[in-house]
Write a structure and sequence with these properties.
mainly beta, five-stranded antiparallel beta sheet, disordered N terminus
Amino acid sequence: VETTQEESLPEIYGGTPTPICGWPTTVSLGGCTGTLVHPRVVVYAAHCGGNQNSVAFGENAGAPAFSVGTEYCQTNPAYNGGSSGRDQAFCVLSQSLDGIPIVPPLMGCETGVLTGGQEVTIVGFGQADAVPQYGLKRNVTTTINGIYNDEAYIGGGGEDSCQGDSGGPVYVR
């Protein structure tokens, strides 16, 4: 299937549905994917907007295991619609989810593991090359192609993210 540059934006292609309770910190925000990084904080992409009323947990965005309301959400004020490394946002949940084990984000010296060829797993609720095409949490293991201007280029060759996976996590060991 040929796609234009515009059509090849973030969905899990070449992946499989996650197992029940798999990747529990990966959440759905009504058309985008996010990541629980603290019992009350979800990070996601600013281009998804700041009006997120709830966050869905589980394997199916259309029929979540449970949803949690948001107290408030904030997009990065420096985000200008481009891919300038400022496409971040967060929501503070209305209640704490202390029973979900948090996978900490890479920070500081830990980011040294992000090199070309490093194996990673992309997880999201976006478009897929399988039925149903949208709304199921899927994962695919691929590699980092390279790091350019502090941005990781990941996937390709039929194993990638797509529309609806924006803001979702990429896991690395």
